[in-house]
């Protein structure tokens, strides 16, 4: 079975709707903490900082807004330049677009996610594929990756998807993930179109055996379907 698009998340909010973060009583305390801990602008200009910057723009997301690890002290000129890059105003006001259609394609192992994206993407589209990133980062196998590499694969994927929040000239971006839970899908690609390739468990297992996938693939297929079914029947969904 193949379902497309499973849901569409709410689009990006406007800047005015994000202002609540700076009126929250937690913000001045956190701001003072950052400025007291960092003596110089993190952009490397050696000027004293006066502004606390969100490394990854929060867009109203509470977790990103108040995460100390997502904050850095900057001088105002460096901060203004970073904001210009993120909002797309560069080179004397020339604005880059931020209109790429982002599609998250998810499903159990052996459901055909990579093939589906290959059939729908066009040359020059961004494709974020866990297995392809793993191989690029040194994994010796296309589907069985060393545990030590997995944190680096995850950070590489998250860095690329975060870059979509800034100005760019992409036509479309495709993110491939298992993501059996709706919460996983919303975290990986907020606001994206979602395609769930809910290929039946028996068929996925048959493909895994046919293709000689690693021994734990069948367990991963069964696990995906357990989590997916539970998430579909959860009161929270």
Automatic annotation (TrEMBL):
Q: Domain of life here?
A: Bacteria
Task: Cite the HNH nuclease domain residue spans from the record.
Answer: 29-80
Gene3D superfamilies cross-referenced by the UniProt entry: 1.10.30.50, P-loop containing nucleotide triphosphate hydrolases
Q: Which Pfam families match?
A: AAA_33, HNH
The record ties this protein, via CDD domains, to:
HNHc (cd00085)
Please name the InterPro entries in this protein's record. HNH (IPR002711), HNH_nuc (IPR003615), P-loop_NTPase (IPR027417)
| The protein's name in its UniProt record | AAA family ATPase
Native source species: Streptomyces cinereospinus
Q: Taxonomic classification, please?
A: Bacteria, Bacillati, Actinomycetota, Actinomycetes, Kitasatosporales
């Amino acid at each position: 079975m193949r379902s497309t698009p499973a849901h569409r998340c709410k689009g990006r909010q406007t800047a005015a709707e994000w202002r609540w973060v700076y009126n929250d009583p937690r913000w001045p305390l956190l701001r003072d903490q950052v400025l007291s801990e960092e003596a110089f602008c993190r952009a490397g200009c050696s000027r004293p900082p006066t502004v606390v910057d969100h490394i990854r723009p929060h867009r109203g997301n509470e977790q990103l807004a108040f995460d100390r690890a997502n904050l850095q002290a900057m001088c105002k000129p460096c901060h203004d330049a970073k904001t210009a890059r993120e909002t797309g105003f560069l080179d004397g006001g020339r604005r880059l677009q931020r209109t790429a259609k982002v599609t998250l394609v998810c499903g159990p192992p052996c459901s055909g996610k990579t093939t589906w994206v290959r059939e729908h993407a066009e040359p020059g589209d961004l494709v974020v594929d866990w297995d392809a990133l793993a191989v690029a980062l040194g994994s010796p196998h296309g589907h069985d990756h060393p545990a030590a590499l997995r944190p680096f694969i995850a950070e590489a994927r998250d860095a690329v998807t975060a870059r979509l929040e800034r100005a760019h000239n992409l036509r479309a971006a495709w993110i491939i993930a298992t993501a059996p839970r709706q919460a996983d899908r919303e975290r990986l690609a907020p606001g994206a179109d979602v395609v769930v390739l809910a290929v039946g468990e028996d068929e996925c297992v048959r493909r895994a055996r046919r293709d000689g996938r690693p021994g734990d693939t069948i367990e991963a297929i069964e696990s995906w379907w357990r989590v997916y079914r539970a998430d579909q029947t959860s009161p929270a969904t």
